[in-house]
Give the backbone structure.
Amino acid sequence: MSDIITKLCEQRDLPDTTLRQLINTNKYDEELFQAADKVRRERYGDAVYLRGLIEFTNFCKNDCLYCGLRAENRNVSRYRLTKDEILSCCEEGYLLGYRTFVLQGGEDPYFTDERMVDIISAIRGRFSDCAITLSLGERSRESYERFYEAGANRYLLRHETADEEHYQKLHPDNMLLENRKRCLFDLKEIGYQVGSGFMVGSPYQTTDSLIADLRFLQELSPDMIGIGPFIPHHDTPFKNCEGGTVELTLRMIAILRLLFPYALIPSTTALGTIDPQGREKGLKAGANVVMPNLSPVAVRKKYEIYDDKICTGEESARCRGCLERRIELAGYRAVTDRGDVKRIHNS
Ligand code: 5AD
Ligand code: FES
């Protein structure tokens, strides 16, 4: 093994200059993926955890420049699922074997704390052996506390980029990296298993901003880390920008696995969108989670964060079967338990 990879495996870290080299070349990729797969197997075996994703609202008050669901995009047909529809999705997911439900949505003011608490409590009451993961953006600490008390266990909130200047280029002025970080640390303190992450190849991203992402994640020490390639959406200001590549995304997944051996890392739908074998490649580069879509087929097309998103026409049961086959063909095993994080002495 080359020195640089040996060092990364032993120290679970590298100085900035070496990280920069590693990020900027494909020279070490094969070694990197092998080392990442080894570390992942040592900690998690061949398990790939399934999370049922319920996209319950595509309303959003924000205007992130990269996202197809941004408020200014008038071409989106907006929808909200009712509490009963959300519960039916969970029911269907439970029968398919899922023991984690991820409630994901835009920042939709309709879902007040009261409404969310009502939904979370209902899921908690009916599915006591399941983990409830929320992904609804920035809220007050008090809201996060109320959701936790109602039975939510995990929260996904990507920091998107840890480079302040870069953050301002991706978001309108009223969104601040500082607040996003505040949310993440609040969530952790409250007791959630926390997921963060970033896009690969977003407009204006540099190698240094990727390094800043890794350093921020080291500071946060999240349980889950989600990354995926940026994919331009035709109705956003970034419609003519280049997208992120499979190659760099896989390299970043492998680096993350080696820096954070304990982490739950999804092989994302975005990766599957830019390459038909993308999710399989992600698993082989160190990812150990997939998030099949559980949203009603009637609304799936409407949750178009980026162009050409996959799995928008398939019934949930078909996605389940499809993913299980893909996972097995890649050399892993689909697992349907809660799949909590496996930390040893907090690392
Ligand atoms: N391409 C890829 N990923 C995107 N996201 C938002 N817009 C895009 C896009 N155009 C990611 C963000 C967000 C997550 C739900 O989806 O990182 O946190
Ligand atoms: Fe949805 Fe393959 S995972 S169709």
About this structure: Residues 29-44 form the longest helix (16 residues).
